[in-house]
Amino acid sequence: MTAAGKPISEAPILEVRDLATHFFTRAGVVKAVDGVSFSLNRGEIIGLVGESGSGKSVTGFSLIGLVDPPGRIVGGSVKLEGQELVGLNDAGLRKVRGARIAMVFQDPMVTLNPVLTIGQQMHLALAAHESISKRAARARSAEALTRVGIPDAPARLDAYPHQFSGGMRQRVAIAIALLHGTKAIIADEPTTALDVSIQAQILSEMRELAREMGTALVWISHDLSTVSTLASRILVMYAGRIVEEGPTAQVLRSPRHPYTAGLLRSLPAMAKPGTDLEQIPGTTPSLLDLPEGCPFRPRCDRASELCAKDPPMTRADDRGYRCHHTLEEMVSA
């Protein structure tokens, strides 16, 4: 398959199995990522969604070994084209980051150095992984900027980050991630701070890049509507776990976990004009003090005695959900 956002190869670029990242604090152990598993194929775009504190960003950082103390990956596997990244030393991770897997952060000003020109920063990114002349680096950099929609790219290489708009800076960050023909990109809410029209442009460009270059994307977001236009598959996270996964259209049309259904009901597009938005009651639980059994139980209007036990991940029809009940069962009851 070659449609944007869909896999064009069955061999996984990224394979994650039972990934667990914990933070060891004075107050106790925070299980920020607790047994996350998924795979990513060449050219595929998956969306990782959930409320703040669900573990989305920590999952992204864990994939490329950017978890700082007191956090630590305590279990599981992350394989990039068959190479195990968990347990790889700093030198090994530096060879992989940027060259084969990269991350685009929410705020490009965190990524970009304000005292270096865009061209200098892109040259440094290239020189970190290969021997390259200034002329060749400049040509590659201009090509990458053009690819992400920056006009007059050769001239813009001499500009500084503050001379770009927020949307253009984010394009620069994406271009840097693409310099080495990166196999996979982890994008951590990269369009959250941008206006709607710029968001739409960048999403369109990312779909095009996935289709043309075969770059695989993990798009992390709290915005289901954004992910629905981009990703072919959705992974819904809650309290450090994936609670539902499946093809985007199927998950949005018929969610099988009450949390996913609650997220969908809270979207403005789902509300009738003049009515209040529905919201999920309560707040996400503290990862230091999770409720017994299903962590969503205190907020769920479908909770029963069964929910006092931890629900397993049930898989059927290319779907997965971690719930003792499904919405389909509730409707038919």
Automatic annotation (TrEMBL):
InterPro entries the UniProt entry points to: AAA+_ATPase, ABC_Ni/Peptide_Import, ABC_transporter-like_ATP-bd, ABC_transporter-like_CS, Oligopep_ABC_C, P-loop_NTPase
Record-given protein name: ATP-binding cassette domain-containing protein
SUPFAM superfamilies in alphabetical order: P-loop containing nucleoside triphosphate hydrolases
Pfam family, one: oligo_HPY
ABC transporter domain segment(s): 14-264
Gene Ontology biological-process entries: peptide transport; transmembrane transport
Keywords, in A-Z order: ATP-binding, Cell membrane, Membrane, Nucleotide-binding, Transport
GO cellular component, one term: plasma membrane
Subcellular location: Cell inner membrane
Record's bilayer topology term: Peripheral membrane protein
Gene3D superfamilies in UniProt: P-loop containing nucleotide triphosphate hydrolases (3.40.50.300)
UniProt keyword Nucleotide-binding present: yes
Family membership noted in the UniProt record: Belongs to the ABC transporter superfamily.
Entry GO MF terms: ATP binding; ATP hydrolysis activity
